[in-house]
Structures are given as C-alpha cells and as structure tokens.
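Practice problem 4.
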C-alpha cells in the first residue's frame, strides 16, 4: 500500500482553534501512542490529525508536533496547496 508523505508541523503552524481532542488512540511500534484531534463537520466529529505527546525515544523529534490526515483537510505548505490523496483513510 502506498502512503502519502506526512508532515509533522509545530502546533503554531496548525489552526488548533478549529480542532478538539478526540478519544481516539493508536499505537505505532516506532513512534508510540498517538492521540488524535478532530473537527466538527456536518454535525459529527471527524479525526483529522494526530500527535505523539510522549513518543518513543527513536521518534523524539515528533513530540507534540501535529500530523494532518491530508485526506480530510486542506493543507497549504509554503503557499502551495497540496492535493488530497486517496488512501484507506479517505
């Protein structure tokens, strides 16, 4: 399965005022436990990002960074809007 490039952004580079913490959690063997962020859309909450508040030592550089599901949000980096990928999370 081909996965899109994921960008971990500092919190001040993300519209956190639009996001709320989600109850969703997952575990990655490389990064550790991920916590998710959601947005309200059409009366329901949708997970659109995740972060690793306490990553494993090999992933320390992503601590508290936000990673967006590009499949669900408009992502603009350096003034260029990314196309939304099609993945199992679309």
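Answer key:
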């Amino acid at each position: 399965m081909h996965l899109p490039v994921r960008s971990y952004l500092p919190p001040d580079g993300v519209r956190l005022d639009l996001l709320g913490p989600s109850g969703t959690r997952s575990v990655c063997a490389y990064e550790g436990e991920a916590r998710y962020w959601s947005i309200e859309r059409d009366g329901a909450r949708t997970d659109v990002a995740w972060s690793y508040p306490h990553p494993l030592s090999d992933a320390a550089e992503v601590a508290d960074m936000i990673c967006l599901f590009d499949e669900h949000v408009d992502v603009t980096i350096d003034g260029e809007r990314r196309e939304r990928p099609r993945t199992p999370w679309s």
